[in-house]
Write a structure and sequence with these properties.
Keywords: Membrane, Transmembrane, Transmembrane helix. There is one protein chain. 41% of the residues lie in helices and 27% in strands. It is an alpha+beta fold. The strands form three sheets. A five-stranded antiparallel β-sheet has the order 2-1-5-4-3. A five-stranded antiparallel β-sheet has the order 6-14-15-12-9. Strands 10-11-8-7-13 form a five-stranded mixed β-sheet, with no helix packed on it. The protein contains twelve helices and 15 strands. A hairpin with a 4-residue loop joins strand 7 and strand 8. The protein folds into three domains: 97 residues, 2-Layer Sandwich (Beta-Lactamase), CATH 3.30.450.20; 178 residues, no CATH class; 198 residues, Acetylcholine Binding Protein, Chain: A (Distorted Sandwich).
Length: 484
């Protein structure tokens, strides 16, 4: 199974000739009598049924697959093992496999940029009619913006060394055991720790309060002090709620309410991604006691299955993409006066992560649609430009009114985000301000100096023709620069 490890992009299972599971991330499928054929029939999944039948017949291949657990699309791969009738089945999430890495995101954006640039150049050189050029170039830039949004939305925000199965956990333990032996440290003691989050509430621009349950499993009679700390917490409430013996192990559970300070990067709003985390230490961390995920306590530990998250949890303005445990190695310039080893060594720390993305439709309706309306009205004003002074003054008055519409919406955006820098969506406002000024100046020049250079050529045709290509081109350039 080591060769089948998918590092969070999916999971693998082993079946026998009868379809029984020998290995599966969900232990219930191993202990119960339900076969892969039963699952395929109960979910009416013909692809899964055919693939499983081919697998036990010694064939290899792949089919498209939709997970009945997560509802995500991906691929179902199968290949036989040396034991007759046995096979390995692997489910790979399509988004994680294709767009889960920054380099793939950049390659996709580069390809789309090259294609759109080539198409626009072709239109400018080959197409003769002004309005056809305008339409094709504008559509090309809009498509570029849409493709970039799609790539960014489907790019994973998961960070750290993800622990999504017993296999990845065993790899981590073996690696850390070897490091401790090499550094002549005491043998690490691993404490299985699970977490269940029931509520998430934002308390300002940087503080998040989360509540739920956390539990740990100890060997019966263990002399290790039981408990954990949240080192990044501003406020912590930890109340023991149960202590039971399960399968010869002592399980201790606590209700927790913790307020942690998070660093949110709103610079890519409204396509920004949030990775909430809860950082955990054992009380005796200085004795080389390491917290490890209690994988066995979850039905499925694949990040997309949202293990450890309340099913009906409320997340205002955002939706949860994945949840997972991970390790980050942090180096401290101290040994806290008691820990063994020299200061500065890397210490693996357990994080429970909740990857979230903003609901794009909410931001689109609240901010982008008003700007689209303002820009459309400006274009109508530009088309109606005439030589009379009185109407030119009316154009200036209309532009002033539209300016106040945009500026008040802009102020509301800044206040809602509490942003310290410039966010992506603000560039749309900057472009709108530029267009307001440009239309006002153009209307004045056309009204009072109608025969002046480009303004007087064919009744002010150039500003009208290049209006939308200029706007969409600027927005595409900004989009590419921000998200690349």
């Amino acid at each position: 199974m080591a060769a089948s490890e998918l590092d969070g992009a999916g999971y693998s299972a082993i079946i026998t000739a009868s379809g029984r599971f020998v290995y599966h991330p969900n232990d219930d499928l191993v202990t119960h009598t339900q076969t892969v054929f039963d699952i395929a029939r109960s979910t009416n999944n013909r692809n899964l049924l055919d693939a499983s039948e081919n697998a036990v017949k010694g064939k290899a291949g792949q089919v498209e697959y939709t997970s009945p657990v997560t509802g995500l699309e991906g691929w179902f791969l199968y290949r036989p093992l040396a034991v007759p009738g046995w096979a390995v089945l692997s489910v790979i999430d399509r988004h994680d496999a294709q767009l889960g890495k920054d380099d793939l995101k950049k390659h996709g954006m580069e390809v789309s940029f090259a294609l759109i640039t080539a198409c626009c150049f072709f239109c400018m050189v080959v197409v003769k009619r002004y309005w056809v050029k305008t339409l094709l170039c504008s559509l090309g830039f809009v498509m570029g913006i849409g493709v970039t949004w799609y790539i960014v939305i489907n790019t994973s925000a998961e960070t750290g060394q993800i622990i999504s199965s017993e296999m990845t956990l065993d790899k981590f333990k073996k690696k850390y055991d070897a490091e401790c032996q090499q550094r002549h440290l005491s043998t690490p003691v691993y404490v299985p720790t699970g977490l269940f989050v029931q509520s998430i509430e934002y308390d300002g621009p940087n503080n998040v309060t989360m509540t739920g349950y956390v539990w740990q499993t100890y060997d019966t009679g263990s002399k290790i002090e039981k408990g954990l700390v949240f080192p990044e917490a501003v406020k912590t409430l930890l109340e023991e709620t149960y202590r039971k013996t399960v399968n010869g192990k002592e399980v201790v559970g606590w209700y927790f309410e913790v307020t942690v300070r998070e660093r949110f990067d709103n610079s890519k709003f409204p396509l920004d991604k949030v990775n909430l985390w809860i950082r955990m230490w054992h009380k005796n961390f200085y004795d080389n006691v390491v917290l490890v995920p209690d994988i066995a306590s979850y039905q499925l530990s694949n990040p997309k299955s949202l293990a450890g998250i309340e099913a009906n949890i409320v997340t205002e303005g955002k939706h949860i993409v994945s949840s997972f445990f991970s390790y980050r190695c942090n180096a401290y310039k101290t040994n806290f006066g008691v820990a063994r080893g020299k200061p500065g060594r890397d210490v693996p720390e357990l994080y429970y992560n909740i990857a979230m993305s903003r609901k794009f439709l909410d931001s689109f309706v609240a901010h982008l649609i008003p700007l689209i309306v303002v820009l459309s009205l400006l274009y109508i004003i530009l088309l109606m430009s005439v030589l009379e002074k009185s109407l030119a003054l009316n154009v200036l008055a209309a532009c002033s009114g539209l300016f106040f519409v945009a500026i008040f919406d802009h102020i509301g955006l800044r206040e809602s985000l509490s942003a310290s820098g410039i966010v992506y969506l603000e560039y749309y406002y900057f472009v709108t301000y530029f267009v307001l000024l440009a239309v006002s100046i153009n209307s004045y020049l056309y009204a009072y100096h109608g025969n002046l250079g480009l303004v007087g050529f064919q009744r002010n045709i150039y500003p009208r023709v290049f209006y939308w290509p200029m706007i969409t081109g600027l927005l595409y350039a900004v989009t590419f620069a921000v998200y690349y």
